[in-house]
Amino acid sequence: MEKALIEVRNLITHYGDFRVLDGVSFDVRPGEIFMIIGGSGCGKSTLLKHMCGLLKPTSGEIRFNGRNIADLDEEALSVMQHAIGIAFQSSGLFNSMTVGENIAMPMREFGEVDPELIDHLVRFKLSLVGLSNAQYQMPGELSGGMRKRAGLARALALDPELVYFDEPSAGLDPIMAAGLDELILKMKGLLKTTFIIVTHELESIRLVADRILMLDMGRVVFCGTLDEAAACEIPRLRQFFDRQPDEFISQRNLD
Amino acid sequence: MSDLHLKGPEELNQDTGAHLHKEVKRVWRKGAERLVLDLAATRCMDSPGGAWLLKISDFLRKHHARLECQGDRGDVSDFLRLLAPALTSSPPLPRKRTGIFENLGGVLIAAATELRQFMELSVDAIYWTLIAPFEGKGFRFNAFVDEVHEMGVRAIKIVCLMNFLMGLIIAMLSAKQVESFGLQIYVANLIVIGFARELASVVTAIVVSARTGAAIAAELATMTVQEEIDALRGMGLNVSQYLITPKLLALIVSLPCLAVLGLISGVLGGGVWGVLVLGFRPSVWYTQTMEAAYMDDLTQGMLKTLFFAVAIVMIGCHNGLRVTGGSRGVGLMTTRAVVMDIFSLICIDIVFAVVFYYILG
Ligand SMILES: Nc1ncnc2c1ncn2[C@@H]1O[C@H](COP(=O)(O)OP(=O)(O)O)[C@@H](O)[C@H]1O
Ligand SMILES: [Mg+2]
Predict the structure, then answer these.
(1) Residue B55 belongs to a domain with what CATH number?
(2) pTM over the 0.80 mark
(3) For residue A21, how far is its CA from the centre of ligand 1 (angstroms)?
(4) What residues in chain B have per-residue pLDDT under 70?
(5) Which fold has domain A1-83+161-226?
(6) Which ligand ends up closest to the CA of A39?
(7) Considering CB atoms only, which of A113, A123, A138 is closest to B325?
């Protein structure tokens, strides 16, 4: 079996006293599209933030290319983060810069990109997400879905080895969402980019996912390929794929 | 024949792309219509390579020619398909910055509009604060109490400290000036009159506008940016009633109280210098202070603070609600609010000085 790009072992994390992740373990292999699913509030965004070293776990380890993130010093962590592109759930664009400058920023700051080339590279990245015309607009002037796409363009700015993408298709129209799926597949094919994507879109899971991880109540319910998921009888997973409601909307955050 | 031919490198990346770009410029002849790029030998390309192609395409477009790629296969074809939308469209034009400052008319209109908005908001807020509660429309008493705590009670320490130090410093400086005349006891008069008429209210208001005025502007601006204000309006609630009224009333109540505390601290500060350094007996200094203290001075000084309070809250709210453009806008509007606060304090102060000491005399 191929060596894992990311290994998560027994990850436990808290917000204050509230245990968000409760012993999560899984592997992500290089070049695959790994999708994380689960009800809202089950800790998916939190998991992503741990995997890029923004939050420190209570216990457990996360290994990136075999090295434990918690053991990295600031500099090594920063080097690791250059190899990762992150598109946050609420885009995280800098409001004080135009969309184009947002995308140029990582290129200027870390990339060994020829300064002459930055403008055209920015245009290329923007055209990938269908935002060519927004280059000189401010993020405040974009709609939610446009901001999300601009966030992805910024995540892709340095052709990262690994892209984290939090709920890419929330707020996008179906046509754009389908275009995004295609883009992700192409990036995977061409640049061997690894994607870790949090999503709720059944369509896009069926189309692009290599493997999926399902979280519920801070634990792993399922981790495996699509075919395995289709054959699997775990009730929570079936419920997700068949879009069945709970009998009550569960009150997990009140426990 | 107006075609140019070039061969693509084996691997199209940042360096080979730069080379290709130079090559294109070298072979370029006037009047050529087409550049045919043979990519048969190219095995792979990456994003910077693609960006160089864009740059070449832009260069050609500027000279009314176009770029045509031929013979590409495999991954390179896929990549070119990703690149296609950017290749075929011309670059967007940078936005022309037609700032409002370009013409005086624009500035005047903007200022007039802003003034109108400010007046509307103020009238609305004052209606909801002073009139509506008596018409039986709601008043958020709990929010009011919270605001009094935040704006008033928690500001006591800094207000007292500032005024105390001001009193100390003024006593120190003025005692030095009158030393040779032997009139040092009159420093007590100076301190009490100065603080009652002017210093206590102004110093307090400046501290409060930096503390509370900025906080109000930042809070409302963030709420505007995050669509909280829209949410409030969408529920059919009135922003003035829900958000501004408790703040306005809270500061109208707290600021005069703070100013009185400030006055006491300032006089104490002067007294400390008078007793400990100038060597007066406490009772002497006390009697002198009390003789100089007039209720009129105090009322006039404190009356001002009511206007200061309204100005601080309304300017904070006004700027907060005007914000556009996310986090940067929040910072800009907060700064603007504090600057406008302090400017308006001075204006109000001047009006009072003219009315009470010059006209009424
Ligand atoms: N900064 C925070 N402080 C406290 N609790 C938080 C914080 N962020 C998220 N949570 C809680 O952690 C849980 C997981 O949040 P999150 O990872 O954002 O969920 P999601 O799976 O929807 O992305 C939620 O119950 C949320 O209430
Ligand atoms: Mg989330």
Answers:
(1) 3.30.750.24
(2) no
(3) 10
(4) 1, 97-102, 361
(5) Rossmann fold (3.40.50)
(6) 1
(7) A138
